[in-house]
Amino acid sequence: MAEQLPGVALLAVPVVVGALAVLAGSADAVLSARAAGRPVRAAVTAPLREGARLLVQQPRRVPGADLLLVRAGLLTLVAAAGLAALVVPVGGRAVSDSSIGLVWFNAADVAVWVAFWSIGWGSNSSWGLVGGYRFLAQALAYELPHMFALVAVATAAGSLRLSDVVAAQQGLWFGVWMPVAFAAYLLAVLGLSAWGPFGRPVGPEVAGGLGVELAGVDRGLLHAGRGALLAVGAAMAVPLFLGGGAGPWLPPALWWLVKTLVVLGVLVGLGRLGPAVRVERFTEQAWLWWVPATLLQALVVAVVVL
């Protein structure tokens, strides 16, 4: 079992997740500026300047919009990322080393579905509603491969506790002998955060989709929630597939940070490799290829363990 972090560590969770989210936003802004030939230096602080601008911007009021539903969805988005972060072991220590850590993480993912749909439905905008339904279709496509990837990890470790998952990788990281599950997990992280090629629910071709009627703090919460989900997904990849804080010379917590930053960089880079994926195309490919591939991966793991 992992050593339990003191209760005061709860206060550090939003700080660490927020810092990683800002870092991801900065890296994305830098890559975008380089591609457009704009100065890179200004892009480094773009997320912070955008956050400050949204804090003082007046919120937008749409007649007939369900403001309570929209804000409940926005807060759920941020809360889901925070709750998922509680079970991430950092160098052998976690805020909560729950015996059902993997299930807890996946439950937070499902809460994201409710959050995105609530934002789209409550906005009383056709574009927002299209964005919400696009996310649901996208989520249905990535969720099964994601679950089979987690099943493969739990089967190999013989436990749903994340400290046991890390301990089971002492000889060989799961990411090495479960490449399909690892790839499916990374795609799912991009999907659940509506990031990069899976950003069509908030894409410009639907006038901003879920965020079309959001302004001020509300829009800031949408950006913060998506960034936090990407950051927590990257942090969780380390105990699931990269041996947790295992590594020579450096303290385990520092190894966890290094690996998290590498995964976060890969996710941001993947988001810039190609155009946005059409939801119907992704759904077709997921059912034809990703579901069978991850199911086969889980079966191979089960045979090896037996």
Automatic annotation (TrEMBL):
Q: How does it sit in the membrane?
A: Multi-pass membrane protein
Superkingdom as given in the UniProt entry: Bacteria
Task: Give the subcellular location.
Answer: Cell membrane; Membrane
The answer on whether this UniProt entry bears the keyword NAD reads yes
Q: Does the keyword Transport apply?
A: no
Enumerate the UniProt keywords alphabetically: Membrane, NAD, Transmembrane, Transmembrane helix
Annotated InterPro entries: NADH_UbQ_OxRdtase_su1/FPO
Residues passing through the membrane, by range: 68-88, 100-119, 139-160, 172-195, 224-242, 254-274, 286-305
Query: What Pfam families does this protein map onto?
Result: NADHdh
The entry's family comment says: Belongs to the complex I subunit 1 family.
Q: What is this protein called?
A: NADH-quinone oxidoreductase subunit H
Q: Which organism is it from?
A: Rhodococcus antarcticus
Lineage here is: Bacteria, Bacillati, Actinomycetota, Actinomycetes, Mycobacteriales
